[in-house]
Amino acid sequence: ATPEAVTPEPEPVRPTIRRGALVDISEVDSGPTAVKKAPPKYPLAARSLRLEGTVTLRVLVDESGKVAAVEPVPGRSSEVLVNAAVRAARGWTYSAATKDGVPVKVWLTERVSFKR
What residues contact 62, with CB distance under 8 A and at least 6 apart? Predict the structure, then answer.
């Protein structure tokens, strides 16, 4: 009687994440952390009109930690405040998010407040 050859089970294929892949923020191992986040300049026009409010932004942080895109979330904020918030966010930098140890792109939500 000869023993039957046992075929080993194949290793499960783990998808490899590519550097710079867009990953949902809920799926990253470590999210982006603000490195440089200068507050926006309060626009003179908004100040003279005594405008206040909070602007919500969607910010795309790339695999090197730079802001690649900024989208204002529709709301009731004045266009003057929205524009100031977007301008400020474009200059922010973060540490990159990682998935499986690989730097990836993620969208995150940021809120910018303007108070007199």
Answer: 20, 68, 96, 105
User: Dihedrals φ, ψ of 21, to 5°?
Assistant: -65, 145
- Which phi-psi region, left, alpha or beta, contains residue 50 (left: φ > 0; alpha: ψ -120 to 50)? left
**Residue 30 φ then ψ, to 5°:** -140, 130
What does pTM read for this prediction?
0.83
The model's pLDDT over 57-107, given as tens digits with 9 standing for 90+, comes to: 999 999 999 999 999 999 888 999 999 999 999 999 999 999 999 999 999
Name the region of 103 (left: φ>0; alpha: ψ -120 to 50; beta: rest). beta
